[in-house]
Amino acid sequence: MGLGGGRPHRPGRTVRCPEDVTIRAHDPVWSGAVSTLPRAATGSSVSFFLRELATFGFVGGIGTLISFLGANLLRTSFDAGPVLATLLSNVISTSVSYLANRHLTFRHRDSAGSGREVAVFFGLNGVGMAIQVCCTAFTHYTLGLEGALAYNLALLAGLGLGAGFRYWSYKKWVFTPPVPERAEPRTASDPGLLVVSGQSG
C-alpha cells in the first residue's frame, strides 16, 4: 500500500505523506528501499578486508626480514649465541611491527588505551618470541645441530609458528574493532518506528 493512500508506490514517483506519518522499518515499501544496502556493504567489507590483509602481510614481511637478517648479522658479525641473536633481532622486529601495524594496518581501529595496547602487544609478541626461541634452542642444544643450514631452518620454523600466533592474537586482543554506539530510538515507545514529516496531498 502506498504511503499517502491506497495507491501503490512506484519508483521515481514522489509520494506526498500526511504530517507525522509513521513507517515501520519492516514495512514492504521501506524494506525494499534498503534491501540493496547489505549487498553494497558486503562488497565494501570484502575489499577492505583484502586491503587490510595485504598491508598486514607487507608489515609481517618487513618484520620477518628484520628478524632473519638481524639474527644472522648478530651471529656472524658480533659472535652472539643463537638464543641471544634471536631475542635481540625479535625485539627490534617487534618494535617496528607495532609501529607499522598501529599506524598502517589497523589505523582504523580503536584501542582501550595506548599504554594497555603496547603492553598487550609486547606481551603477546613475547609468547611469539618464546615459540621462535624454543625452535632454535631445541635445534641447537637438544639435537646438537650447529650448522648454518640447521639454524636457519629452525629460525624459519619459529618465525612461521610465531607469525601465526601473532596474527590470531592481534585480531583477538590488541587491534579490536571499535564498539558501535547504541542508537537512540526515534520514539520512546517503539525504537523500530521512523517518523516522516510532510505535507498533505
From TrEMBL:
<dbReference type="GO" id="GO:0000271">
    <property type="term" value="P:polysaccharide biosynthetic process"/>
</dbReference>
<keyword id="KW-1133">Transmembrane helix</keyword>
<feature type="transmembrane region" description="Helical">
    <location>
        <begin position="80"/>
        <end position="100"/>
    </location>
</feature>
<dbReference type="InterPro" id="IPR007267">
    <property type="entry name" value="GtrA_DPMS_TM"/>
</dbReference>
<feature type="transmembrane region" description="Helical">
    <location>
        <begin position="120"/>
        <end position="143"/>
    </location>
</feature>
<dbReference type="Pfam" id="PF04138">
    <property type="entry name" value="GtrA_DPMS_TM"/>
</dbReference>
<feature type="transmembrane region" description="Helical">
    <location>
        <begin position="149"/>
        <end position="168"/>
    </location>
</feature>
<comment type="similarity">
    <text>Belongs to the GtrA family.</text>
</comment>
<dbReference type="InterPro" id="IPR051401">
    <property type="entry name" value="GtrA_CellWall_Glycosyl"/>
</dbReference>
<feature type="domain" description="GtrA/DPMS transmembrane">
    <location>
        <begin position="55"/>
        <end position="175"/>
    </location>
</feature>
<dbReference type="GO" id="GO:0005886">
    <property type="term" value="C:plasma membrane"/>
</dbReference>
<keyword id="KW-0472">Membrane</keyword>
<protein>
    <submittedName>
        <fullName>GtrA family protein</fullName>
    </submittedName>
</protein>
<feature type="transmembrane region" description="Helical">
    <location>
        <begin position="53"/>
        <end position="74"/>
    </location>
</feature>
<keyword id="KW-0812">Transmembrane</keyword>
